[in-house]
UniProtKB/TrEMBL annotation:
Domain Xylose isomerase-like TIM barrel residues, every copy: 53-255
Record-annotated membrane-spanning stretches: none
Superkingdom of origin organism: Bacteria
Protein's name in the database: Sugar phosphate isomerase/epimerase family protein
Keywords, in A-Z order: Isomerase
One family name in Pfam for this protein: AP_endonuc_2
GO molecular function terms attached to this record: isomerase activity
InterPro entries xrefs: IolE/XylAMocC-like (IPR050312), Xyl_isomerase-like_sf (IPR036237), Xyl_isomerase-like_TIM-brl (IPR013022)
Amino acid sequence: MKRRSFIKSVTALGTTSMLPLPGFSLVEKPKFKLGLQLFTIHEEMMKDAIASLRAAKAMGYQDFEIFGFDEKKGTCYGYKSSQFGRILDDLGLTVSSGHFGFSPYLDQSDEVLKRFVDQCISGARALNMKYITWPWLAPDQRSLDHFKLLANKLNIIGEQVAAAGLGFAYHNHDFEFIDYNGENGFDIILNETDPALVKIEMDIYWVVRASRYAPSELVSRQPGRYALWHIKDMDKTTNDYTELGNGAINYAEVLPDPIASGLEFFYLEQGGNYTHSAMKSMADSAAYFKKHLQKYL
């Protein structure tokens, strides 16, 4: 059986078991920690990671997704991964996912890629991380041929990461939804990768802004695959990022069913366009989430 046929068969077999039970209320659904993607406060983290984490904890954040792991030095925010792990433990915080710099390795040999993945796995284990995530593609890699190459690389990484006892995910932006004569990168990723090895970190802002599908429609196509979410709002005038509650996305209506999604972790994020400052924006977004989306906590 060809790999593509095998993947479609596995997905079809798993679909019914992943769907929520009829009448299953959100009260009975699993709850989640309030998560923050640390890219949002990257400058603050690089200046004083401990103070920034304490401030984020005071806002209500309990779990984090890292950005900026230095695989050559084995460091996070200037600390050795093991040291950073102890800092998190001391503060009673967790890191469940990390964005790692995979893009430069897309055109490298599988052997070079696997060595890099080994370094990512070492860093992830030091932080007791659950997921390693591919976050981005360079502009010159955004073509159909590169997306097909990417799907192959994602399968290779997913198999290696799974063998290490960790999960692997791909994070979308808008460019995956660009149409190339009826094809797009997002569909290639979904259809050409093994759902058991490659999960999706759905950036809901980019899905709303760039996809013709609602988040719930994407989930219905492959239930159980969207293990991680990114949540940020969209400015009503510019479509840029903004704080939760300031923008055009009604998250009370937009968020898909977490059980159907296969959700394990979600992270609030804002990559810029702060009304005041990154820290104030994340405080405002946390307050909005706790007030209006409390059922997810």
